[in-house]
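Appendix B, Record 12. Input sequence as logged:
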Amino acid sequence: MSSEWPEGLNLDIVDSIIDAAFAEDIGKGDLTSEAVIPAETRFTGVMSARDEMVCAGLPVAGRVFERYSKDIVWTPRAQDGDKVTAGTTLADLEGPAIDLLTAERTAINILQHLSGIATLTRQYADVIADLDTILLDTRKTIPVYRHLAKYATRMGGATNHRMALDDGVLIKDNHVAVSGGISEAIKRAQAAKLPNIEVECDTLDQVKEAIEAGADMILFDNMSSETMVEAVAIVAGQVPTEASGDVNLETIRAKAETGVTHISVGRLTHSAPAVNIGLDWSAQTS
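Logged structural output:
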């Protein structure tokens, strides 16, 4: 492999995403490159940041080129988690020109998307960096890209919430409505011997009910900061708490200052703008 593979990033999942992206973008072949570029032509290129950004996905981009052609040499000049300025060289590339041009868009698309997530996540993390509140991501990700998106939030400074529905218990309002109430929903989850039962609460009365019923974590859903102060007091440190809903860069600090232990932000993955990354050719040989 062209660079050290990151811990917690499943290579099989990444390869399946890359292969699907190749099928989508390349199809039967790069008609333009194959028609206008001699087969023996080689390029040397530089991938660089065109925005200030936090890197995420550099090993994945390298894997894109490596998976498409063993003749491409990818040399990273930055690491995931690095905050870099515009103009920073992220990687050097060298190899067959046709191969590089064919794989270029897939690599850049993934890297721009993941670095965008990491960059936005870092902004949120910085706002509450001096507090004890843990920043969480959510399941609000582009389908199939969750594994990569949640990796990117980690590079930005967040902690992953559950990866999938089989990775944790969260009783939400619709579960409560169908079950007939918070206490009944918790009772059923306990009967199923499910651990770490988290319950979404909209009101202070629901918080009291969830605590009395034995919830292991309480989620304050769309509560104002003033209401959350009361909710935190009711919980009184008995279980961890989470704030969710109406969390943005302007509101996150006030919510964190309520004493809540976690804050989840869907915007990290569903609204992060891609950063601008370019690949410029610095030399050509035939």
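The chain has two domains: 11-122+273-285, 159-264.
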